[in-house]
Specification:
This protein has 4 helices and no strands. The protein is an all-alpha fold. Helix 1 packs across helix 3, helix 1 crosses helix 4 and helix 3 packs across helix 4.
Length: 86
Amino acid sequence: VPIWCAVFNRAVGLLRATKSGGGVEAADNPHWDSDLHLPAWIPENERVRIEPLIDNWAEKLLSAQRELVSELSLKLGAKPLRPLWV
């Protein structure tokens, strides 16, 4: 779930960047959280292995399912997906 949240959030960020004409820089909006949020019990070495893969997955998702990402962008508004653990 946390990986999918990060992939969806980055795909939405990329979509919004292309729509605004801002390129990749606009995807780095500080108000749009596209970081990988893992639970505290996941070792840092797993994060280090997963993190570099997320951008590629987000780009593939956006190219394969642009309508889905666009719909998700509308539904999310200003609040990106964020996994929580209790």
